[in-house]
Amino acid sequence: QIAEVDLIISKLRSDVERVEDVFNSSMEMYQNQCMEVERIDDNISALKHDKDALTNEVKFTALIVDVFGTKGVQAFVLQNVIQALQYRTQTYLNELSDGSLQLRLEVGTNDR
To answer: Using CA atoms, how far apart are residues 25 and 23, in angstroms rounded to an integer?
Structure first.
């Protein structure tokens, strides 16, 4: 009977060692997966930051294009031409009407 008990104890020790090996292997895999998740979270945060920075850059670039692009320059030139035209026309109108008539010219906005 002692031999049987020793055999059972030996098998149980062997089983415990296998369970410990599996557990240690599983813990190592779990820790590796946790580190991978942390690395992915860091990448996601960095990508969100990059996306926000690029979004702001696109907005700023669109503003620069509107202001200094063809439409912005045309609007600036047109506004100055209209003001000069109004000034000159008002001068002639004052002469013709003894100052009783006024002319007002405006450039409409083309807001999006």
So the answer is: 5
Q: How far apart are the first and last CA of the chain?
A: 95
Write down the residue that tokens 């779990």 correspond to. 30
Q: Residue 112's pLDDT is what?
A: 46
The sign of the dihedral angle between the CA atoms of 102, 80, 77, 69 is negative
What is the number of H-type helices and E-type strands within the chain?
2, 0
Cα dist from 68 to 53, 74, 78, whole Å: 22, 9, 14
Distance CA 25, CA 107 (A): 76
Total-model pTM:
0.52
